[in-house]
Each structure stands twice: as structure tokens, then as C-alpha cells.
Design goal:
single chain, about 1200 residues, alpha/beta, Elongation Factor Tu (Ef-tu), domain 3, Rossmann fold, Arc Repressor Mutant, subunit A, 8-stranded mixed sheet, 38 helices, 36 strands, disordered N terminus
Length: about 1200
């Protein structure tokens, strides 16, 4: 017996205070997902991981990145060569060594702030009791079913959480036992939502189900519970007709849903639920996004009768004596803006006001033992794939059968062994017969034949879920209840020979030697080497993807300390180095065979780098994997994949949630077409400027103000100083509206730069405080007093419009002084006052206390209502006069005498620069003006810094799902229905796999509408014509050869994909116009008329005028004819500029077309006339001109 080695405390820094600061920064992104409470609990968590094959190494890696107090690993089995295909911390020299010892150095190096150790020898009860969570991975020879059941019992008796996970080929399962009364303080990790109340009503309680409605209104002799679904619907309709007086035709009766029947019943006094009253809350906005059972704290609601009682929380339907309390809610079935609370019938009518905030409440769950669950399992319903309905039950039967085989034989079935597989099927048949269920023998046979194999894709999926499951000990997120199963056996046919023993052995066994060879010879592009990119490179290394072809990777970013908690290829020694080079180096250490194919770039993929990522580069690629974190880059990459017809593998994460998608040309939508929508369209300007109602609006306002105050103005000044007066004024004159603001800013900062001092900085800060937090608020109140009514006679200050409260300067108010200090410090940076260090808070407070508070002078405020069309700013004569005066003032400046200043560049990760402190201070002062809850520094950093909550577990899992789709592509699968778009949520145990949709097609239709014309409503019709019909983004009109513009126009309209009767009216390359069609007959007529008048003219003056008219018309005629004869390549390069890739043999054009409406067919039948109310919009594919 070997005792566990005492863990060694490992620190990368001898100074403890510095190390703590490092750790806090390391976890900043993870904290965005987990929150402070879970992070604190993680720091006390002690985890043991047994087994270090693919599942175990992934689990241990992800746990160490999260930084629990202790991680211990154990695996005494000897390393085999095939282990190198899934365990990324093994190399060839480790073969024959114990796995635990072989992985120790790499695992210990992941997180020097976690106690890490390797245990060798026997697993005893005393050992298990040292840990708060125990994870067993795989079904090793030393852990048969009976032993796992024993370990589970020991853990349960000790209060230790027990998790067991396994991988059998392309199947993985996880079992969780968190014991009795496990507390979950946050079931899903979603942010607590806030609402604005617009009305409160006392109404009859909604029916829970149709049975309640029928029981309340049918005679007692009806046995409602024995009625079928159709009968219940039929009687529900009869009751609505007989008691509520409603009438439905036969078609409507058939289409009515149960929910609609209940809505009708609740909305009619004769059929409403008379036994119970509840409160009905209606909220502002389109939907509240709450769920039944959620708890909402209501505040600031005024009812006819005052609150009484001191009950803090009311259950749903409970009699309430107070409206401003916390309520358990029930959501409305069909109205996403409303929900129901307790009975408020004694509080009278609603008067006004009201906000609400969601409150997470703890729930407790009980779990059964492994022994109980094996034969009477509870299987998570969150794994959904409608192509595999019911497969989880079948996988569980196969799992138990494998465990029975293992228990009897002390080993798993031999690879591809028919006799062993038949024995497992016999076990499975017996289990199925006992349950009275069928059996998919082919599936169980695959589970048995490939039980000893593993791929890194399945291991990554498993390890992400298992590590997250272990962290649920903290009480955040919902543990698995109690088994979860997932498989991808659709990838596996008969398998290979099973005789390959190197790192690629299991891949060859599962998919065949041809698959391995094709993978090795692949030429692909991995874009991004951050969190996703690191995980992808690990997958790449394990299977040698591209080792005999080309592994093209790129990333222009450098490694920061905050990356280390999720980008697992990087260590502290990599901080400050390029991600692409560092990640490629580590991947090649994992698998040295990658070195021959590795092609590392250090630049962004964007239009201006197309001289590097050339047409040939793209043509040679087999596929593309995106590992990006912004929508603009993804859309650009999507466009390149469409243009070059390359498969694209996409993924993205947000906290515990992630999704993946595969985009196959001509078979699926492109990324831009199929990508999930983002978070709305941002915050309405009127909300952010005048009517904030939640802290998010205040933080976003502060971020915008930071740009205006510290970035834009100083940047305008620096532009003047560097460019000189003449060029600066030219830039201003190019856009007078923006130019006026630049002139004002440049002059303001020119004056400030000459008198830079701490006093100047504090005065600037003081002026901003008075203007933003006092003057503008008073101006708004002056124009819209508290009792203001809108045009409909309802109170102006209601719902989302929170009445503002000005902040009067008080030098004893610490929040006010904080704002002055942080603002002055940033101005000191801009003006160069902080060269010897930032001023102290006390120094700034002392200066501010001596400044006289100016008197408020009212200004008129005009506000735009949300949803109203924003008025376009006009440049008035007054503005023009000011513009000219400021130009004159600027022209007098001697730029050589101007000192340099430093525009503030917002930096979210530097805690010493006061930027996040300023955002926090200014946002909370803004919140105080509307009595909105203040937020802490971390939340302000996350929102203002656009930081995406990111954790290693989710990233690892979703890359596994992506690589399953890569496997399918390499296998040459043609059936698109076998590919999947995946959505996962590790917090709530969700895995949803869906078939990709078809590519979006453009089709012809008539859009009907109306518009106002002279006070009348005029009906309009617009014919949207697709030529060709049903084309997709993958279709192009290809024209070969360099030719004249006139020839190109004819070549386009006569292309086989297009119909007759079309005319090219324009060709464009982005914003550049290449060709615009003009009717030459107009100018020929003008010339003819001018010449006739010239012939009749008698005076020299008239002759001169008419000759000029004729000459002008001729110039247009010549220009039109010349345009027709100009070569397309010459015109393109002149107007659009050179191609970034000079060897690209084509360029792209957008083409506008017109059509003859008199042609017979589709158009004439649907749009009989064409005028200003009957228009035509022709949509056509992009034109690709092959000029070389």
C-alpha cells in the first residue's frame, strides 16, 4: 500500500501579495461566468481524478485551469502507444511508464496556485474521504462494476460527491451522485433579470391545465381524468360556446389548441376560474424572459391601498398584504409580457410605478446511488437529437451490458472481437427483456467492438462536462440527474483492421486507414489561436491532422495574463509572446509530426492581408476552422469560404453555453445566413441619453462618455498638431458636420495643452460633474416636470421613464470626490501631468473644495421617444457661420508651438490607470440620478470592456463537437442530414443536435404595403424578382475574359442563368462605381434640338449658347460611347483600386438590373403596372469576372 504523497504548494512567485494579484487577474474572464460566490467556493474544493486516458486528462486539465484548492490524480496503468491519440501530455518516451507519473510535470505546471499531487497505489476509503468530489473515469481493469459501486457508497457515507464517466468508442456517459439534500443556489447561472412594471391587475387565477377548466364547469358525473386528449378539447370548445357564448366554425374548432381554449376561458367572466384570485403583472418591452417558479422582488409600485404586513416572500397564489415584496411567479402561456403572482385583491387598483428584479433562490435535490441507478436509471432529457429518438435508453442498456461483461471477464471486449461483442449483446438482450423493451443490436455491437477505443473529440466533450460537473459541488448550476449519454456512432461503419498500435491506432480502428491518410494530407486553415484555437490545436495534434499536408494558422494577438485560465497551451513564460507562434510550438511538442506541415502566420485575416492569404492560398485549402471571437471577422471568413466554395466549421462560447455549426457550400446556409441572432440591436439612443432604467444603460453611457472626453477631443488636437493647419482644415471641410466638432475639440484642447496642471485637470473634472449630473438633469426636469402628461394624456414619467434626481455638489460626499479624482487622473495622463505619478485623492479633493459652484441656467431639452425615427442633423446657416469662424481661429495657430498630448486609449485590464475606476464611478453616479442599483467594479469592467465570460470547460466540449463534424467531412459523408449543428449548456446539462437547414434561397414575390402621400394613405406594391429563381449565396454569374464594359453588360444579360428582357443599369465594386447605364438617346435628342436652334439663331450670342448646348450634349454622347468601349480591367483598377492579391484572376461585381415589365409571364400577372407605387427590385447573384 502506497500512501498519497502530501501535495506540494507551488508558486511561480515568492512574493505572496504579488501572487494573489496575479491570480485575481488570471480569473477575471472566468469570474464573469462563475461570479464571486462560486470562485470563493472553488478555492476550498478538493478533487480527486482517477484514470488519465482521454476523459481523465481532459477533466484534470479543465479542473486545474479553474483553480480549485486541491487536485489529485491517480493512474497506475502503463502508457501504451495508442494512448497518445487522446492524452496530450504523453509522448513516445512515456510508453511503458505509469500514466499518472508520465503526466505529472505537465499537469502540475498548469496552475501553480492549486495544490497538485499524484497518488500511486491502492484506492482506500481513507483516501476518498480526503476529497470533497471524486471523479472516476473510464472502466479500467482495476475498477469493475462492483468496485465502482463500493467507491460510490464510501463517498455517499462521507458526504463526498461521486462522479463516474466513461468512453466506449464514440459513446460517452456520465453518472452523478451528489447525495441527499444537495443545495443549488443558482440552477442555471443566467444573469438575474430586471423588469419595468406597466400595470398590475387582480384577476381570476389561470387554469393550470384543461382538466381544471373541465372539472370546474362540467357536471360531477363526468370522469374527466379518463377522457382522451381529443375529448377534452371537444368538451372545452362546447363549454366556451354554451357558457361564454363564443362561436367557432368547424375549421377553427379543429385548429384550436388547449392553450387557446384556456385563454378564451380565462378571458370570459362566465368561464373564468372563480375559485382563486391572483395578481397579473404586465411588463414593458416585448418579453420578460422569466420562467414559472422564478422569484421576483417588486419595488416602487403604488397601489390604491398602502402595503401592510411584513412578509418577505409570497408563494404563487398566496394571499398578499404587500405588493412591494418578493413573489414566486407563474408565467402566462401565450403573452410573454405578463406573469402571475399571489392574490392581491385586497390592495385596490394600480396607480403607477414599479420595477422588479429576479432573485435566485436555493433548491435542494436528492440523488440515488450508482447501484440503484444502474438498473432503474434516471436519464437526463436534455440530450436531444430527433434523428436518434430514444437512443439514450438504448445506450444505457449497452453500458450496463458492458459493465456486466467487464465484471465477469475483468476486462472490456477485445477490439473488433465478434465473440466478445455477441456476449455483450446477450447481456443487453436479457436487460431489455426484463424491461419489456426492444434492443438496437447493431448499436450495442458497435459499443462492444469499439469499447476500448477513444478519440480526442469524444474525450474533449466528456472532459468538459465532467470537470464542470465536479465544480457543481459549489452549488452553482444543476448537477446531472443522474445519467447522461451521448454517442456519435453514425460516423462508424465496420471499422478498420484494429491492428495499428501507434497514436493513430484508434482512429484507424474506428474510421479506417484511408481516413487517417486523408486527415494527414489535409490542407486547412485555423483562424484564431485563443481559447478555441488552443483546444482545436490539441485535437489537431492528437490525430495528426495536416502533418503531411499544410496546417495554416494565424493570430495577431499576444498572450496576456488573463488568458491563462482558459487558453491551456500557454503558461506564464508565454505572456507577451504571439499566440500563433506559441500555440504552434506547444502543439508540435504534443505531436512532433506536425512540424512538417505547420505554417504559422502572425496577421489578421482581412481585406488588406489578401496579398498574403491569396487566391491560390484559398484555392488549395480543403476546409476552414474558425476560432474567432467577433462577428465581423466571422462574416469576412464566411464570405471568403462562399467565394472559394470551402466548408467552414464554426463555434462560439458564452459562459457555460456554446454552439457549433458546419457550413457546406450548396448544402447548408452560410454562417451569415444561419448564425444565431445577437443581443438585439444595442441600446436605443434616447434610453441611454435621457431615460436609463437599468445599470447596463448607465455603464454603456459611461463607456461612450469616456470616448468623447478622453479619446475623441485629444485625438482631434493631435490630428491638427501632426497634420498641420492646411491638411487638418481639408479633413474638416470634407464633412462639415463632423468637421465642426473636430474644430471645436481641437481649439479646446489647444488651450488646455498650454496650461496643463493638476488644477486644470481637477477643474475639467469638476465642470463635467456639474454639467452631467446636475445641469442636464435639471434641464430635463425643467422641460418635463414630474406631473407632465404625454400627447395621449398619460403620465410622461412612467414605465421605463424613471424620474431624474440632480446631484448637487458636496465636497464631503466620497462618491463625488472619487469621480473628481479618477477623472483628474485620466486627464493628467492625457495632458502629461502624471509623469511623476498620479495625484492623490486628497490633493484632488482639496483643489475641488475651493472651486465655486456655478449657478444653474436652464436650457431647452428635446427628447426622442424610443421607436421614433431619429431626426437627421441639419447643418444650419448658424452652424456654417460658426464653422467659418472656427476655421479662421484654427488657421492662426502655430502648430510648431503645440505640445504633444496623449489621447486616452481605453484599457480594461490595467488596474492602475483609473479607467475602470472612472467607468464604475461615473456609471454609478448616473444610476444615482435615476435611483438605479449601483454595480461593482467587476461588472462594469465586463460590460464596458466587452469581455465575454469564458471558461475552459465549455471551450473544450464545443471543440469536440466541431471535430466530430470534421471527422464526417474527412469520411466523405455526402448526406447533409448526418451533419449536426450543436447547442450545449454545461450548467443545465443540455446537448441539442439539429440537422442543418437548407441554404437560403432568393425567390420572387410581391411585397405589399402603404405610405402617406399628401395626407392620404396610398397602397404600394413592390415586385421582388429573383433572377435566376431560387438562387443562393453560393451561386455566381461567371464571365470569362477581359472585355469592354458594353460587352460585359451584354454577356451578363445573356448569361445562361438569367432570363431575357434584362438590362444592366450599373456595376459596382463595393462603393466604387464601375459602370452606370445612361440612355444615349436623351443626349442625341438634346444635341438635335440645339443644332436646329443654332441653325435658326441670328445673333452671335444665341449662336454661341446653342453651340455650347450642342457641344455639351456631344460630350455626354462621346462619354457614353467611350464607357461602352472601355476595358473592364482598366476601369476596375482605376475606380476601385488594385486587388490586394495581384495574381487573383478575377474580381467581384455587384450588378443592378432592370427588366421590361411588358414581358409575358410572372411579372405581368402580379404587377400589371409600373409607377411610383408599383416598383421592381431585381435580386441577382454576384458577378465574377475572370479577366486573366
Amino acid at each position: 500500500k502506497t500512501k498519497a504523497k502530501p501535495p506540494k504548494k507551488r508558486y511561480s512567485n515568492t512574493n505572496m501579495s504579488e501572487e494573489k494579484k496575479e491570480v485575481k487577474e488570471d480569473l477575471s474572464r472566468m469570474k464573469g461566468a462563475y461570479g464571486e460566490k462560486m470562485i470563493k467556493k472553488l478555492k476550498t474544493m478538493k478533487v480527486a481524478v482517477f484514470g488519465l486516458r482521454g476523459s481523465g486528462i481532459e477533466t484534470a486539465k479543465n479542473l486545474l485551469l479553474a483553480g480549485p484548492h486541491t487536485v489529485m490524480v491517480h493512474d497506475d496503468e502503463l502508457v501504451q502507444a495508442v494512448d497518445l491519440g487522446a492524452n496530450f501530455y504523453l509522448n513516445e518516451s512515456d510508453v511503458g511508464k505509469p500514466r499518472g507519473a508520465a503526466c505529472e510535470k505537465e499537469l502540475a505546471d498548469i496552475n501553480p496556485n492549486t495544490y497538485f499531487s499524484v497518488h500511486t497505489g491502492e484506492i482506500t476509503a481513507d483516501l476518498l474521504k480526503q476529497y470533497s468530489t471524486v471523479v472516476f473515469t473510464d472502466l479500467q481493469s482495476q475498477w469493475p462494476m462492483s468496485k465502482l459501486i463500493e467507491f460510490d457508497k464510501i463517498c455517499t457515507e462521507n458526504g463526498t460527491k461521486f462522479i463516474w464517466s466513461s468512453i466506449f468508442g464514440m459513446h460517452t456517459s456520465i453518472f452523478s451522485n451528489f447525495g441527499k439534500k444537495h443545495e443549488i443556489f443558482d440552477k442555471d447561472g443566467a444573469p438575474e433579470r430586471s423588469i419595468v412594471v406597466t400595470s398590475v391587475e387582480s384577476v381570476p387565477a389561470p387554469y393550470e391545465k384543461i382538466d381544471d377548466f373541465l372539472l370546474a364547469h362540467l357536471p360531477s358525473y363526468f370522469d374527466v381524468k379518463k377522457m382522451g386528449y381529443s375529448a377534452k378539447k371537444e368538451w372545452g370548445v362546447k363549454l366556451l360556446e354554451e357558457k361564454a357564448g363564443l362561436k367557432f366554425d368547424d375549421k377553427r374548432k379543429k385548429s384550436l389548441t388547449v392553450g387557446e381554449i384556456l385563454d378564451y376561458a380565462e378571458g370570459n367572466p362566465a368561464t373564468a376560474n372563480k375559485g382563486k384570485m391572483v395578481g397579473k403583472i404586465t411588463t414593458a418591452g416585448e418579453r420578460h424572459l422569466l420562467a414559472s417558479g422564478d422569484h421576483i422582488k417588486l419595488e416602487e409600485i403604488q397601489m390604491e391601498k398602502k402595503d401592510s404586513g411584513n412578509v418577505d416572500t409570497y408563494k404563487y397564489g398566496e394571499k398578499a398584504t404587500s405588493i412591494n415584496a418578493t413573489f414566486e411567479i407563474k408565467v402566462h402561456r401565450t403573452n410573454p409580457r405578463t406573469f402571475f403572482i399571489g392574490d392581491i385583491s385586497g390592495l385596490g387598483s394600480y396607480v403607477q410605478g414599479g420595477i422588479g428584479s429576479q432573485k435566485k433562490v436555493s433548491v435542494w435535490m436528492d440523488y440515488e446511488s450508482l447501484e440503484q441507478q444502474l438498473y432503474a436509471p434516471t436519464i437526463e432529457a436534455g440530450v436531444q437529437n430527433f434523428m436518434k429518438f430514444g437512443v439514450s435508453t438504448m445506450l444505457h442498456t449497452g453500458l450496463v451490458a458492458l459493465m456486466q461483461f467487464h465484471e465477469a471477464k475483468k476486462e472490456l471486449p477485445a477490439i473488433l472481437d465478434k465473440a466478445d461483442a455477441d456476449k455483450v449483446v446477450q447481456y443487453a438482450k436479457k436487460l431489455a427483456e426484463e424491461k419489456g423493451m426492444g434492443l438496437d443490436e447493431a448499436l450495442v455491437t458497435k459499443m462492444a467492438k469499439f469499447a476500448r477505443t477513444e478519440t480526442n473529440a469524444i474525450a474533449a466533450i466528456n472532459g468538459g462536462f465532467v470537470a464542470q460537473e465536479a465544480m457543481k459541488q459549489t452549488g452553482k448550476y444543476t448537477p446531472i440527474n443522474q445519467f447522461i449519454h451521448f454517442d456519435a456512432f453514425e460516423l462508424v461503419g465496420d471499422g478498420g483492421k484494429g491492428d495499428r498500435k501507434d497514436r493513430y491506432g484508434h482512429y484507424a480502428t474506428l474510421f479506417g486507414e484511408e481516413f487517417v491518410e486523408k486527415a494527414h494530407k489535409s490542407n486547412y486553415f485555423l483562424v484564431g489561436c485563443g481559447a478555441l484555437g488552443c483546444e482545436f490545436l490539441k485535437n489537431i495534434a492528437m490525430m495528426g491532422l495536416g502533418c503531411k499536408g499544410k496546417i495554416n494558422i494565424t493570430d495577431d494577438d499576444v498572450i496576456e495574463l488573463s488568458n491563462l485560465s482558459r487558453q491551456f497551451l500557454f503558461r506564464r513564460k508565454h505572456v507577451g509572446k504571439l499566440k500563433s507562434e506559441s500555440s504552434a510550438g506547444v502543439a508540435c511538442e504534443m505531436n512532433p509530426e506536425l512540424k512538417g506541415g505547420m505554417n504559422v502566420h502572425k496577421i489578421r485575416v482581412e481585406p488588406k492581408t489578401e496579398n498574403v492569404f491569396t487566391n491560390k492560398f484559398w484555392t488549395d485549402l480543403d476546409f476552414v476552422i474558425n476560432a474567432l471571437d467577433n462577428i465581423h471577422a466571422r462574416v469576412y471568413m464566411d464570405g471568403k469560404c462562399i467565394l472559394h466554395s470551402k466548408p467552414l466549421f464554426e463555434s462560439g462560447t458564452l459562459g457555460t453555453q456554446a454552439n457549433s455549426s458546419v457550413h457546406i457550400p450548396h448544402k447548408t446556409p452560410s454562417y451569415a445566413e444561419g448564425a444565431p441572432p445577437g443581443e438585439g440591436q444595442g441600446i436605443a439612443m434616447c434610453t441611454m441619453t435621457n431615460f436609463p432604467y437599468e445599470s447596463l444603460h448607465c455603464i454603456e453611457w459611461s463607456r461612450a462618455m469616456f470616448g468623447q472626453m478622453f479619446e475623441d477631443g485629444p485625438a482631434a488636437y493631435e490630428d491638427l498638431r501632426k497634420a498641420g493647419v492646411e491638411k487638418f482644415l481639408e479633413k474638416c471641410e470634407a464633412n462639415e458636420g463632423e468637421g465642426l466638432a473636430k474644430l471645436q475639440s481641437a481649439l479646446k484642447w489647444a488651450a488646455l495643452a498650454k496650461k496643463s496642471s493638476l488644477e486644470t485637470c481637477v477643474q475639467l473634472a469638476f465642470d463635467i460633474f456639474i454639467e452631467e449630473y446636475r445641469n442636464k438633469v435639471k434641464d430635463l426636469i425643467s422641460c418635463y416636470p414630474k406631473d407632465t402628461k404625454d400627447k395621449n394624456g398619460t403620465p410622461f414619467w412612467r414605465g421605463r421613464k424613471r424620474f431624474p434626481y440632480p446631484q448637487e455638489w458636496d465636497s464631503s460626499n466620497d462618491k463625488y470626490v472619487d469621480f473628481i479624482w479618477h477623472t483628474a487622473c485620466i486627464f493628467a495622463d492625457v495632458l502629461g501631468v502624471s509623469k511623476d505619478g498620479y495625484p492623490t485623492k486628497a490633493a484632488c479633493a482639496e483643489i475641488a473644495a475651493k472651486i465655486d459652484v456655478p449657478e444653474w441656467k436652464a436650457k431647452k431639452v428635446e427628447v426622442e421617444e424610443e421607436g421614433e425615427e431619429k431626426k437627421k442633423p441639419t447643418f444650419s446657416a448658424e452652424d456654417m457661420n460658426l464653422f467659418e469662424k472656427l476655421k479662421e481661429d484654427v488657421s492662426k495657430i502655430d502648430v510648431s508651438s503645440l505640445p504633444a498630448i496623449s489621447p486616452g486609449d481605453f484599457e480594461k485590464d490595467d488596474d492602475s490607470n483609473h479607467h475602470i475606476d472612472w467607468i464604475t464611478s461615473s456609471a454609478n453616479l448616473r444610476a444615482d440620478t435615476r435611483k438605479i442599483k449601483n454595480e461593482d467594479r467587476h461588472k462594469c469592467r465586463m460590460i464596458a470592456g466587452r469581455i465575454i465570460a469564458a471558461i475552459a470547460t465549455t471551450t473544450a466540449s464545443i471543440t469536440g463537437f466541431v471535430f466530430l463534424e470534421v471527422y464526417k467531412h474527412l469520411l466523405g459523408m455526402e448526406d447533409i442530414n448526418k451533419f449536426n449543428w450543436n447547442t450545449i449548456n454545461l450548467a443545465t446539462n443540455i446537448i441539442i443536435s439539429e440537422m442543418p437547414a437548407d441554404p437560403k434561397q432568393k425567390y420572387s414575390w410581391v411585397k405589399k404595403g402603404e405610405r402617406e402621400d399628401g395626407g392620404k394613405i396610398v397602397k404600394t406594391e413592390a415586385a421582388i424578382i429573383a433572377v435566376p429563381e431560387n438562387f443562393t449565396c453560393y451561386d455566381f454569374i461567371d464571365i470569362k475574359g477581359d472585355m469592354s464594359l458594353g460587352q460585359l453588360a451584354k454577356a451578363i444579360t445573356s448569361h445562361e442563368k438569367l432570363q431575357g428582357g434584362l438590362t444592366v443599369t450599373g456595376m459596382f465594386a463595393g462603393k466604387a462605381s464601375i459602370y452606370e447605364s445612361t440612355d444615349i438617346s436623351i443626349y442625341e435628342k438634346k444635341k438635335e434640338t440645339a443644332l436646329k436652334r443654332l441653325a435658326k439663331a441670328k445673333s452671335a450670342g444665341h449662336k454661341r449658347i446653342f453651340k455650347q448646348h450642342a457641344d455639351t450634349a456631344q460630350k455626354f454622347i462621346d462619354a457614353i460611347k467611350a464607357q461602352e468601349t472601355k476595358m473592364i480591367s482598366e476601369t476596375y483598377f482605376k475606380n476601385a483600386g488594385p486587388l490586394a492579391d495581384p495574381n487573383q484572376p478575377f474580381f467581384m461585381l455587384d450588378v443592378s438590373l432592370d427588366i421590361d415589365p411588358n414581358l409575358p409571364g410572372w411579372l405581368r400577372s402580379r404587377l400589371p403596372k409600373r409607377d411610383d407605387t408599383h416598383t421592381i427590385d431585381i435580386q441577382t447573384p454576384k458577378v465574377r469576372v475572370w479577366y486573366k
